[in-house]
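User: Show me an example of a complex going from sequences to structure tokens.

Assistant: Sure. Here are the input components:
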Amino acid sequence: MKIILFFILYAGIVSAQTDWIKWGKADVDYEISSQHQRSHSIDDSSIGSSILSGLQVSYAVLISDVDGDNCPFYPTCSSFFVRSIKETNIFQGTLMFADRFTRDSNLFKRRDHYPVHYSGRLYDPTYNYYLDQNKVKFYSRKKIVE
Amino acid sequence: MDKPILQQWNSRYLILILLFAVSQISAQRVSYDLFSPHNRKIFGDRLFCEKDYLRAIDEYNAVLNHMPNDILQYKIGLSYFFMGRYFDAERNYKKLFKSPFLSEEAKLEYYRSVFYFGDYSGFREKINTKENFPLAYSNELSRLKAYSYLMDDSTLPPESEMLSKFDDTDKKSIIEFYSWKQDPPYKSPMKAAIMSAIIPGLGKVYAGEIGDGITAFLFTGLFTYLAVDKFQRDQTTSAWLFTALAAFFYGGNVYGSAAAVQNYNASLLNSTSIVKLSYT
């Protein structure tokens, strides 16, 4: 009886102990956590959409989710690529994406050149790059775009 | 003999001490109401000076619940105006239209709020109908009306009619904006595309995107150099890869230059920030 009581007491004390995990320096992680849940579904409405969404999901899973939510623009470059191809054609969409990639890689100050989206990113919609002056929309740099 | 004098002095001394003590005690007993209308007004003025307009409005409204005060009502309107809440400012100024000594100023600020709200055609319509028009400030409103033509896409009045409202110090900048509005300095997307086709990035610089132009030049130049280098070394696989990348960035640069100029032209159509308002 005494042994059982002793064992119960000992088990309680042992399970209460948590300090065998050594405290150590934590590695700092500067990765920006994703603010939104990305959809990883494939759009199977057509072969082209399937390939496009497949490429986007592959990029998202293999590169973007690992690298972090770093794109300063809204929509992000991968979303911009998909939207531009859907709204125009593969050739024009690719050129739009090439231009967007170049602007994203711009090392110089560019905050003044784009309006700010309410998500905190720079607002850079696809319809401003269709080469159709009637569809280009200018946003005041002083206001936040919703 | 000394004793009565001494007694007199003692009693006088005692009375003086008592008077002094009573005055000290009565000074301590003065009650201080922090939330009196007077104190709230002072606090509101302090907040207003520190540009804490929202809290200043709360304090002024608390004072106005006790007693009407046209100046505070006016300052509430000003606070809303400075916060950019022009519709609320208009609403406040309307309450002062019948004020005995702030009516004209309130009407002027009302019109100013309507102008800043951005409904320029509505603003001009109100002025034309002379609705609650402040006669003492008709010159200021005439100038504002002239400015409103520069702020939207409506047909500009003749230049002479525009300039007649302004004095010589302002005429030069008004002429400049008037000419700019009549004939905006649009740029040609085709020209930008051709410039970028010849020298990558030059079209972007022409559109005002200097950083983007330099980046496009560097990318295209780098991949072109790598492609040429690989071809010279007979490393055809990587050479074609770099060629594809160079073509990708080159095509994007030409396309993007034309798009950048279109964005620039759109900003000219919509830009009102360069119109500086001088207001007396």
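The lines above are the inputs; the final block is the predicted structure for all two components together. Chain A touches chain B through 27 residues (CB under 8 Å).
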